Amino acid sequence: MGVVNITPDSFSDGGQFLDRGAAIAQARRLAEEGAHIIDLGGESTRPGAAPVTEEEELARVLPVVEELSDLCVSVDTRRPAVMQAALDAGASMINDVQALQAPGAVESVRESKCAVCLMHMKGEPATMQLEPHYDDVVGEVKAFLRERVAAAEAAGIARERLVIDPGFGFGKTAAHNLTLLKRLDEFADLEVPLLAGLSRKSTIGKLTGRPLGERLAGSLAMALLGLLGGATILRVHEVKETRDVIAVWEAVKAA
Ligand code: 9MG
Prior knowledge:
Elements: E1 2-5, H1 20-32, E2 38-41, H2 54-67, E3 73-76, H3 80-88, E4 93-96, H4 105-110, E5 115-119, H5 137-154, E6 162-165, H6 174-182, E7 195-196, H7 202-208, H8 216-228, E8 233-234, H9 239-254
Parallel strand pairs: 1-2, 2-3, 3-4, 4-5, 5-6, 7-8
Helix pairs in contact: 1-2, 2-3, 8-9
The chain binds 9-methylguanine.
9-methylguanine (9MG) binds near residues 45, 168, 195 and 197.
């Protein structure tokens, strides 16, 4: 899954693709490099990001979705109205960092055949990194995802449409993120495909001391650890290099 943020202030590529043409070109480049899914976002969930109105989010995302109708497009949004409009415009997946908890979110996706990513986040983006606490981070994240999968199924969204994501960096310290990554294989018993978003995240900065623009090696190491832990979708900024990691990992598995 290749990331294209159509925002002025996303944590890793804010401002780069706010221009519609640049966002479309970046999506096409990532697809050519081997991304199977393009994840478009019009709202930054970075702590401290300026709030965006629903109208602005729609204006950022919809024209780009419409231009990419030949690709498998995911839209990263928490807003039911944006989900609905994105699906009408041709999106194939909704990536919801709030796991369809907003009122009306389940209804927005239920009638479509789209895939849905249910992600764990503790708290709200603005405050989630203020001393997050867990007694058992793996157990609590798993219990949340189990409950959200059950709620989606009960609402009529078939399990085959669902993807789960522990939400690295969303209300988690570096230590929480590392524990989740080390024990990622424990999510297998939820029997839903696992997405991991580790690319360029602040834990890499913490471990390596590198600023955002210099986290490629750390991101690739994280990608490999995600694969080893059972992730089948990697949400990444650098697709070409991540494809190489996957090629090496697949060759070793097949040897
Ligand atoms: C939107 N977004 C930013 N980081 C993410 C992650 O780790 N997973 C998912 N599903 N979405 C993310």
